[in-house]
Amino acid sequence: MPAADEIAIVGAGIGGLALALGLARAGRNLRVYEQAPQLKEIGAGVSLSPNAVKGLRYLGLGERLEALADEPPTQVTRHYANGRVLVNFIRKRTREQLGAPYLQAHRADLHDLLRDGLASLQPDALVLDKELTAVSDDAAGTYVLGFADGSQAGADLLVGADGLKSTVRREVFSEPEPEFSGFVAWRGLVTRDELGAEQSRPGSMVFVAPGRMFVRYPVRQGALQNFVAFSRVDGWTAEGWSQTGYISTVRDVFADFHDDARVVLRAFSGEQCHKWGLFSRQPLPRWVRGRATVLGDAAHPMLPWLGQGAATAIEDAVILCRALIEFDDADDALRRYENARRGRVNVIHQASLSGGKRLMQQDPDELARKPVVTEETMGLSLYDPATEAL
Ligand SMILES: Cc1cc2nc3c(=O)[nH]c(=O)nc-3n(C[C@H](O)[C@H](O)[C@H](O)COP(=O)(O)OP(=O)(O)OC[C@H]3O[C@@H](n4cnc5c(N)ncnc54)[C@H](O)[C@@H]3O)c2cc1C
Q1: Could you tell me the mean pLDDT of each successive run of 10 residues in the chain, 390 residues long?
Q2: What is the pTM of this model?
Q3: Does ligand 1 have an atom closer than 6 angstroms to the CB of 318?
Q4: How far does the chain reach from its first CA to its final CA, in angstroms?
Q5: Across the strands, what pairs with 276?
Q6: Which ligand 1 atom sits nearest the alpha carbon of residue 45?
Q7: Pocket perturbation via mutation, ligand 1, pick of 297, 302, 373 by most ligand atoms within 8 A of CB
Q8: How far is the centre of ligand 1, averaged over its atoms, from the C-alpha of 104 (Å)?
Q9: Domains within the chain, CATH numbers bracketed
């Protein structure tokens, strides 16, 4: 089949926007359909491992990203109760060893970079308030996308970048629903003023307990302190996977944690924060059907224990973008994308599952003897989606 004339990307999250920006830089004709009436990211941080940073460099965002992100010199894992340092991972040589830095950023800043980059090249490419509800293909082999507002759009090639509960995945690949992992995460940001004298406490820290974990790191050059508090719970009854959480609950659940963790929760001035149910599903056995494919959480939602969900969405986007640019035949390009991505993502998906079990094991002191970040997991970040063979 010749190159696709119009590419439809469903979902303007990190993965969908990364693909759109890459294709727009190559002058390709595309539309991004996003269900939200306004594009805004949640108030939370995101860690960007070197493989993600290399992908963002490919998209021309390297310098701007580094200007607004933080590069932690160390990542310290500590015992939840006594605060003892179990692992002190020095990040100073990461840039040199892995070919790019490990960065931590505000999700909204990353999202804005991607959206603004796309808008500067193709101002009309992003269409908001378009919730995809159905997909069919007509006799000529063109996809017909049906939206909640009753409108329709056509496309030669369809990419589902519509996240965990992907409609494209459901409509095109008919896969079972995601499964609740047994964990929830509360997320929030605390300002420098709220933290007061505590702001000077050093960089990125993780406190580990059996079945619970508390992560804190600065973003926007220390103007904000990001926290993510994970806990095992009995079940998830909410309709979606995100809902309002209450900081009083988080304070109760983490009341026995070391003060370097609790201080962030004490400083949080609001009553509400974000609460997420953590869901996972097996990566798709096939990523391509006809001229439709998926990327990011739509293809392989994973548990966040290795911080590789957004990173692999960016990798997917860069590899798919390169395949569509470098190979004229769209079927060939999609095949190469699937071949390049499936094996790697399966390995990371599995490593994320086992990483969580080890991080929140019965005896946190075990981590000092056998850390989760090893040569093997570090090796995952050597990957460069800009140069990987297709
Ligand atoms: C607590 C937590 C912490 C995390 N921390 C990290 C981290 O530090 N580093 C990291 O790399 N990853 C992290 N992740 C994972 C990361 O957030 C996700 O993997 C990543 O956001 C996936 O991006 P995506 O573009 O595939 O999907 P999403 O970000 O989910 O974007 C999907 C988009 O599609 C839109 N959409 C959905 N359905 C439709 C529809 N029917 N029609 C139109 N539009 C639709 C949505 O509105 C959304 O804009 C974390 C996840 C969690 C839960």
Answers
A1: 79 98 97 94 89 98 95 92 92 90 95 97 97 89 94 96 95 85 93 77 86 95 92 78 88 96 93 90 90 96 93 98 97 97 94 86 88 75 96
A2: 0.95
A3: no
A4: 18
A5: 185, 242
A6: 8
A7: 297
A8: 16
A9: 7-69+100-178+281-382 (3.50.50.60), 180-279 (3.30.9.30)
